[in-house]
Amino acid sequence: MASSGINAEYMGQLLGIARDIKERQCYVALTPERSARSYRSIAESASRSYVLPDDSTITLDDQLWRGPEAFFNPEHMSSKHVSAKLEEDRGVHRMLYDSIKKMDIDFRKDMYTNIILSGGSFALKGFEARLKKEIVALAPMSMPIKMVDAARNSSAPSSSWAPWIGGSVLASLSTFLEQWIPKDEYDETGPSIIHRRCPNFSVV
User: Is 204 within 8 Å of 95 (Cβ atoms)?
Assistant: First the structure.
């Protein structure tokens, strides 16, 4: 965002500005290579403007799709600090595929036909189409793939908060209390305590 001309005085508001740009203007490219060529050939017409809090304007170009592209190609992230947090630099499509592949073969078809998209970033324009394209390429040939957008298929006004609401409901269950791990126990034992306290938990 700094490369787009954001004044240093707004750095404290950077997260909020970035979120607003993501929700209003960003999109997921179905074919990133084609998007890159398009921006090089029609850069001026493909640019979009964004008005900052002081009414100044910045121009956004290929950042609009290169940012969301990190979901599928995190190794292209320029920040080593951010990229290091992503397990093995796998994209979301690869993590999804690997998770299904670890399941019993009898349940895999059910998983491929019940992929639920829930969360703010999944609402990005083009996300569902790109994810389906990538999963089709990875899944066994002729395997049916079906995705459901939880927010779009819900009439509840708070559907965009579904992940948080689901987590709060889970955390309120008395049976879930037995799986809570106090910070001092985690600090003393490390990540391995998760597998002892929650034997059904698996890392994909």
Answer: yes
- Match 């970033």 to its residue by tokens: 121
DSSP conformation class of 114? -
pLDDT(201) > 70: no
Question: How far apart, in whole angstroms, are the C-alpha atoms of residue 6 and residue 172?
Answer: 42
DSSP-assigned states of every residue in 117-180 = E-STGGGSBTHHHHHHHHHHHHSPTT----EEETTTT---TTGGGHHHHHHHHHHH-GGGGGG-
Q: How far are the Cα atoms of 13, 28, 68, 116 from residue 152, in angstroms, in the given order?
A: 30, 17, 20, 11
Residues 182 and 174 sit within 8 Å (Cβ to Cβ) = no
Phi, psi of 119 (to 5 degrees): 130, 155
Burial of 112 (0-12, 13-18, 19+ CB in 10 A): buried
Report, as an integer, the average pLDDT of 168-191. Answer: 86
Residue with tokens 């490369």: 3
Residue 157: per-residue pLDDT: 52
The sign one gets for the Cα dihedral 82, 88, 89, 95 is negative
Taking the model in full, what pTM does it have?
A: 0.67
